[in-house]
Amino acid sequence: MENVHILTQRVTARGDFMPFSAERYRISEQHNTHDLVTKLQTTLSIEGILTIFAEHAKQLINLSGLQFQSALGVSESVDSDTTHTPYSFDLDLESERLGQLIYFSQFPMGQAIETKLQQLHAALVYPLRNAIMYTRVLRLATKDALTGLNNRSQFNDSLAQRLERCRRQHRPFSLMLLDLDNFKQVNDNFGHKIGDDVLQEFANVLRNCVRGTDSIFRFGGDEFALLIDDPEFTTNKVIADRVMRLVSQSSIMAQYAVTSSIGFTLANNQDCENEVFARADKGLYRAKAAGRNCAKAY
């Protein structure tokens, strides 16, 4: 072993020693980069790409987490710990700004490591851009353009999945249908721009009323739906009361005299999609018949 020489690179002033065999690293570096590119091309998930890249980057840096911030929002690699010191890099491709890649590490990052990571970014940017483009197209197919909520197509898929889970795991859930009282008069009297403002405000109200396990959908017009994890009706009543309270406290809703009528039902493992929807719709009809601005179960 006396003829084996292990080199250590000193990270100037800011880091620790990084032990490696310099000759071995030079020989394998090109192969490793090619292997990284191959792995990155196996997925169109931004989170999946970050996870693959993070595993490779751990050869260079004691990495606790990896995050990517873009116009699409914030994505992270699996099991990211973002409580440590962040080190940010702008990612650009052919004059197109992709976003910002953020490494998290409890140890300082030296200039030599930064240079190596920037070289690796050349392997990352093309697969990442493809994933960004795919995510944008996917969101157009499943998201309502005005409010950013899930659309009717996504609702149909989600309802079917919830029912299947209910049958297999005996986990009941609730369907809540909501629409806006007096919304037609807003469009007729004040124009569609004001109507759009009201719809966006109601979408924000719904976001502030549900939990992370619940899902929100806009069918179109002033029709909305919630899928709620709830073994009884308790959560439905809490959410419905919260929706009506926040609507009453909204200045734009009050200005145009808009309220919400709500119907909900509890699904069971014998239901099909049409049966669940029909019951919730009957609950909504009851709320309308009771004078609107209220919630009724069926």
UniProtKB/TrEMBL annotation:
InterPro entries, alphabetized: Diguanylate_Cyclase, GGDEF_dom, Nucleotide_cyclase, Rev_trsase/Diguanyl_cyclase
One Pfam family, short name: GGDEF
Superkingdom, natural source: Bacteria
Coiled coil: none
CDD domains to which the protein is assigned, alphabetical: GGDEF (cd01949)
Signal peptide residues on this chain, from the entry's feature table: none
NCBIfam families named among the record's database cross-references: GGDEF
Protein name: diguanylate cyclase
